[in-house]
Amino acid sequence: MTNAQPVRVAAVAENFGRDLDESYRTIARLLAAAREEGVALVALPEAALGGYLSSLGGGRDVAETLKSRPNSLPPALRLDGPEIARVIAMAGDVIVVFGFCEAEGELRYNTAVALDGTGILGVHRKVHQPLGENLSYAPGESFEAFDTPIGRMGMLICYDKAFPEAARSLALDGAEIVVCISAWPASQTASSDDLSEDRWTKRFNLFDQARALENQVVWVASNQSGTFGSLRFVCNAKVVGPGGDVLATTGTASGMAVATVDVAELLGTARRSMFHLRDRRPAAYLTAEPAVAPAAPDPDRAAIQAPQAVAHVAEPEVTHA
């Protein structure tokens, strides 16, 4: 479902912590600013309700570190709980995407939700888990697009965008707009005082532009800003066009990157001659796992287990919108 009218979209770089009341105040402030700008879609960061993990790492002491730091885990919220309902009431006619720690039974997921005043439009559970995140969350299982008032949309969370198959799965499912929310920190092993020169900042930006270009979609990337625990976030919220060009960015500061996008026109122009989804040669690609498996993970890194995620490999008929 392609929206025939131009829309204003916003990607936010902002700091969110454990205090839910403070998070609601920040969301209200950002939504007020977005409405003044005529924005139809606001992408807030990963873990905007309840904050992210206070540390990341893959060493042998990660599990003990988390156990000894009770404040390191965010509050677990239900999709049908009052916390999400409060944001629905705040959203009105604006589509809001944000992240939180989702509770389902005994499991916890790093989840993104898209909603407006009518209710929940789409949900994504983070599939790819970096640097010990699997000690706190179960992994998601799939990538699925969904319809919204401004077009067909898909969501990713942070490290998901490092894997081309994730964004491609959404594009094959018809996503025209992909929102990737993040809590992407600067490097901790080779950090730079200048965030713009940090190697993880450069990777963050490269992934955003590459995924937009290779799938020829509108890409809206949010991120945390400031610091939380031992993490310093790289900001760089942005809107990227289907040609890989950055339409708006916050750079290394907090703020809101706003761009006007005519989704139908942008996709039509980008896909007019070199239409990547159409020109693929799936029969030539390796779609099965190789016989030699990757090295086994460190047995001391106990993980929360859930079924393996499966990328979208069906071959739908791809037509020009």
TrEMBL record:
<dbReference type="Pfam" id="PF00795">
    <property type="entry name" value="CN_hydrolase"/>
</dbReference>
<dbReference type="InterPro" id="IPR050345">
    <property type="entry name" value="Aliph_Amidase/BUP"/>
</dbReference>
<protein>
    <submittedName>
        <fullName>Carbon-nitrogen hydrolase family protein</fullName>
    </submittedName>
</protein>
<dbReference type="GO" id="GO:0016811">
    <property type="term" value="F:hydrolase activity, acting on carbon-nitrogen (but not peptide) bonds, in linear amides"/>
</dbReference>
<dbReference type="InterPro" id="IPR036526">
    <property type="entry name" value="C-N_Hydrolase_sf"/>
</dbReference>
<dbReference type="InterPro" id="IPR003010">
    <property type="entry name" value="C-N_Hydrolase"/>
</dbReference>
<feature type="domain" description="CN hydrolase">
    <location>
        <begin position="7"/>
        <end position="263"/>
    </location>
</feature>
<keyword id="KW-0378">Hydrolase</keyword>
